[in-house]
């Protein structure tokens, strides 16, 4: 479709007075790249793309109670980002990061800029998160391969909180919510302008006696800014024949501009192998008609249905389909069918697919 006369006239003004452009040509209207997470279902929750993940130029927020895998999601993404040649900037407001622990996870500590800051604003600029963030961003070019991680929003302290503590005043600082909103707005705008990925970790809490969801993400008005908020709502033991081998987390899209809100999925972290790429895909593959169950002796296995055009006869055990020994089964499924397209449709806006496995009802 051609540009109409009114659009053309307004475009001249936009380009003359700023860096506006028609949306079809604007570099700010597209996501330049994604950093994939190891779990395919986490990729779908954050981006509605099975091979997507954390989008550049957007602010993404993993949220949940303590010890529910928020930091592990961030570090998993950071590891992949470093493998692609990127630099990590870690703003640690909780002083919770430990060099050896991160190195054991496969991160390169020599390519992490570590900034242990919790004061959103401070008269001493060396301690001011806002001041340090603004000046760091001035040195980042749009083409630079940089990822920001804030761990976490719950640890941010306001000037009012500091002043009250110095005076021995235990009263709650009522301005902290608005200061967090201001900082989130600043982070969001600069991340968009620079076109870099950003993760802000956050906490959630039980909605005791409230209506609707059983849990709530902390932050109030600050939650307006992230493009994606994925809340981890629960965790359980991952077992195979009564042996505990890891942790299962249930997550939902608390807020989504890319993936459908209230979409829900389970992902798993193995004690030895980390996040399991294909965990949770069996229910979707069964419901979509891509795999079938077959009884072989006393065991039940998954096999390809007729829609999968593979020449290989591969099966995966129903009880342990997610283990690395069955990775070929899933890789071949993606290669020889439109299963990836199906998954994207299930999680994206604008699709009429309603899959029981991912619909969340509060």
Task: Give an account of the 3D structure.
The chain is of the alpha/beta class and 362 residues long. It folds into two domains: 26-276, Rossmann fold; 278-341, no CATH class. It has ten helices and 16 strands. Helix 5 packs parallel to helix 7 (176-194). The longest helix has 19 residues, at 176-194. The mean pLDDT is 91.
* SS summary, helix count: 10
Give a quick account of the main beta sheet: strands, pairing sense, barrel closure.
11 strands, mixed
Q: Under the CATH scheme, which architecture of the largest domain would be assigned? A: 3-Layer(aba) Sandwich
Rg computed from alpha carbons, rounded to a whole number of angstroms: 23 Å
State the end-to-end CA separation: 42 Å
Protein topology:
Layout: H1 5-17, E1 34-35, H2 40-47, E2 54-55, E3 59-64, H3 70-83, E4 87-92, H4 99-104, E5 112-115, H5 129-138, E6 146-151, H6 159-167, H7 176-194, E7 198-200, E8 202-206, E9 215-217, E10 228-240, E11 243-256, E12 264-270, E13 274-275, H8 281-287, E14 291-296, E15 299-304, E16 316-317, H9 327-335, H10 339-347
Parallel strand pairs: 3-7, 3-8, 3-10, 4-5, 4-6, 6-7
Antiparallel strand pairs: 1-2, 8-9, 10-11, 11-12, 12-13, 14-15, 15-16
Helix pairs in contact: 5-7
């Amino acid at each position: 479709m051609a540009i109409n006369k009114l659009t053309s006239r307004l475009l001249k003004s936009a380009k003359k007075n700023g860096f506006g452009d028609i949306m079809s040509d604007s570099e700010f209207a597209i996501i330049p790249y994604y950093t994939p997470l190891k779990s395919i279902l986490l990729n779908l929750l954050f981006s509605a793309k099975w091979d997507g993940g954390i989008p550049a130029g957007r602010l993404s927020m993993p949220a949940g109670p303590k010890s529910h895998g928020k930091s592990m999601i961030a570090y998993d993404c950071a590891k992949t980002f470093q493998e692609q040649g990127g630099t990590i900037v870690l703003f640690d407001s909780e002083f919770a990061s430990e060099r050896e622990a991160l190195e054991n996870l496969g991160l390169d500590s020599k390519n992490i800029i570590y900034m242990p800051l919790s004061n959103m604003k401070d008269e001493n600029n060396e301690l001011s998160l806002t001041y340090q963030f603004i000046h760091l961003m001035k040195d980042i070019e749009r083409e630079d391969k940089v990822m920001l991680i804030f761990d976490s929003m719950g640890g941010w302290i306001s000037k009012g909180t500091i002043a009250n503590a110095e005076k021995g005043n235990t009263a709650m600082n009522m301005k902290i919510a608005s200061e967090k909103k201001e900082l989130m707005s600043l982070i969001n705008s600069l991340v968009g302008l620079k076109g870099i990925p950003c993760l802000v970790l956050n906490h959630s809490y039980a909605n005791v006696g409230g209506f609707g969801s059983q849990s709530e993400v902390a932050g109030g008005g600050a939650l307006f800014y992230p493009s994606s908020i994925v809340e981890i709502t629960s965790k359980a033991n991952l077992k195979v024949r009564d042996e505990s081998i890891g942790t299962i987390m249930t997550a939902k899209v608390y807020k989504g501009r890319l993936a459908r809100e209230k979409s829900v999925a389970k992902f798993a972290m193995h004690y030895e192998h980390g996040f399991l790429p294909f965990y949770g895909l069996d229910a979707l593959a069964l419901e979509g008609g891509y795999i079938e169950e077959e009884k072989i002796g006393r065991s039940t296995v998954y096999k390809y249905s007729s829609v999968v055009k593979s020449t290989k006869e591969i099966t995966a055990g129903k009880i342990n389909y997610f283990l690395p020994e069955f990775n070929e089964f899933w890789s071949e499924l993606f290669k020889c069918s439109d299963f990836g397209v199906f998954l994207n449709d299930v999680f994206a806006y604008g699709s009429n697919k309603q899959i029981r496995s991912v619909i969340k009802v509060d």
